[in-house]
Amino acid sequence: MRHQGHSGRRRALWMVRGPVLVLILLAELLAHGIPLVQCFTALQRFDSRRTPAAVASDSYEIRRQHKHNYISCSATAQKLWQTSGAKTMEESMNLSLKDFKERIEAQRRKSVIAVRARHLLVEVKPLCDSLFEDVKKGAEFHALAAAISACSVTRDAGGDVGWIGMADEFMEDVLPRHVRELALQHKPGDVFKITSLRGFHLVKIEDVMFDLSYTSKPQGRVQGRGLLPTPLKELMAKDKDDAALVYAVETMGCAMNTADSERMAGQLSALGFREAASSEEVAKADVVVVNTCSIRDHAEQKVYSYLGPYVNRKKRGDNLAIVVAGCVAQQEGQAIVSRFPEVDLVIGPQYANRLGDLLEEVMDGNQVVATEATHIMEDVSKPRRDSDIRAWVNIIYGCNERCTYCVVPTTRGTEQSRPRESVIREIEELARSGYREITLLGQNIDAWGRDLTPKQKFSDLLHAVGRVEGIKRVRFVTSHPRYMSMNVVDAVASIPNMCEMFHVPVQSGDDDILKKMSRGYTVSKFLEIVERIRSLLPDAAVTSDIIVGFPGETEAQFQNTLRLMEIVKFDQVNTAAYSPRPNTPAATYEDQISDDVKSDRLQRINKLAAEHAMERNHRYLGREVEVLVESRHVKDPRLVKGRNRQGRPVLFEGNIEELRGKLVPVLIKEVRSYMLGTIVKRIQKWALIHIFLINDFSKPPTSTPTNVKLRRLRSRVKCKLMALKSHEK
């Protein structure tokens, strides 16, 4: 019998699966109340040769149009789509927000094995209720416990009971079983009241320990060589010229990813690995972490291309561990190791601070995928921060919004606020370490505290952060117009070290497009926020994000966005042409805009944004501004670079060794669209020679992605040097 080729096998497979999918689709539509006539109309469009993912989209779109909400796909269909090799529709796309959150919380609770808690014991209920209100307003729990608690065992320790679980029967005299059982159902930062035979308990959850949920299998032989890779444990045990194994972390995307990368780097350092100190060491690193971003179109293909050089190293027989982290890792999961069996570990953003634990499996020679929903524990190791002046501080993870274009909720999960005490403790440690500026991070930062028990306000957290001694500047990103409170604007105006800068993504200046995006606010609501900011803080910077070419956007609707920009005159706008993302409703809309129209609108909006940025920057001309000096300018070592309170980059002449980390007054003599200060209009000859000398051109460039930009820079420098020499002759 002749061997059947790949395409032949696929046709044979679909001869069976096609009718099965038709029946599943019909049953699913009928189960959700779709009229029989409409079902048959939909099935007439069905083609058994289409991919399962397309069938899923058909089913979803029919149900969406009929009921205007998201309904879960059947488990049978999900399983069949998975076995066909096509990526399934994310559950979050097909579930209501309430159902989605309940399912995620149920998954999280299953994995919780212990909590770290404090408790306070009193004899009367009114006192317990009063203390609960005090904690809600920001009172320090450990101080109240030390002063008032009737528990002699934990009172002197500020109510600290440490880690507790259901099996800890020795804790019965402190926290009875039913109290521990309820504690295991709460999140970090929650405070709850409960009674027992001992009296009235007030319990605060500080952290949660959970079982790591992942799939693991022995690493297979490397393709092309037939070799089994050497486990990391064996490599670490070997004497490698008395030097530690080297790691490299490559980061794509947003500030959240940068913060995650710093935490992963900290864990690798704690395990004894050394960070790569040069591009040559990156090319030979023993552990490579690629922290990915899925916000733009073709993100998956970019990641696969990025992995190429490292995968080729493994195929050549090199021993290294490849880790794919971040949003693409969460989105693709097993598909990554299916395409690249050389990858050792795939982890979603929620596991960034558990990299060390998961690497233990990799060290034994296993291939691991960890993308299940889970609680995010407080860090047990210090991040290895990229700067010793400015630091990122996460205050909330995930996002509960359902913007129809955005993939973030399906990759970063539901919202989880960090406890106020944990945030303040991290900032206090940064202040003791000499950091001058912090940026509070959250996908939807105004949502901080709304998932805690009892609920708390972001504006109250800002006041607490503002009281930390030693931190000279505080920023925060990103605000959502739907939830941004005027109390936040008031807090920035009243707290001295809060920087006068607000990043509030509007996304569109047309109400119909905003509704289609499911943003939950109108243009007038956004303008109220801007008016409040400008009335209290006339010099504040207001920046935003805008998407052009969203499905169905007409020229008139685009003009509404330009009109909004003329009204507000943003200090800076991050613009992007709409790109369909997997597992998002907007990707299924039929009224997609052509690439030519998107490109034209993007050029026009960028031109207007640059004009407004220049206009806004002119207010600094001739003024003296406070600048936090951060680094030497990469193109001209005579200049130092920093930022003013509004976040504008400032260049001026100075000695970086003397000024680094200091707040200095700078007289602004020249402005550009996105820069202030003493700006050199062209790189001087000696500066070019300086760059030439610090980059060794005698060595052949490596093929790692890290060196692509460097090679281009070197090429440009060579050309300019040759031009200068020719001019001198």
UniProtKB/TrEMBL annotation:
Record keywords: 4Fe-4S, Iron, Iron-sulfur, Isomerase, Metal-binding, Rotamase, S-adenosyl-L-methionine, Transferase
Annotated Radical SAM core domain residues: 385-615
TM segment ranges: none
All copies of domain TRAM, residue ranges: 618-681
Superkingdom of the organism of origin: Eukaryota
Record-annotated PpiC domain positions: 115-207
Pfam families: Radical_SAM (PF04055), Rotamase_3 (PF13616), TRAM (PF01938), UPF0004 (PF00919)
Protein's GO biological process: tRNA methylthiolation
Residue ranges occupied by any MTTase N-terminal domain in the UniProt entry: 245-364
CC cofactor: [4Fe-4S] cluster
Entry-linked PROSITE patterns: MTTASE_N, MTTASE_RADICAL, PPIC_PPIASE_2, RADICAL_SAM, TRAM
InterPro entries in the cross-refs: Elp3/MiaA/NifB-like_rSAM, Methylthiotransferase, Methylthiotransferase_CS, Methylthiotransferase_N, Methylthiotransferase_N_sf, MiaB_methiolase, PPIase_dom_sf, PPIase_PpiC
Protein name stated in the entry: Adenosine trna methylthiotransferase
Organism: Nannochloropsis gaditana
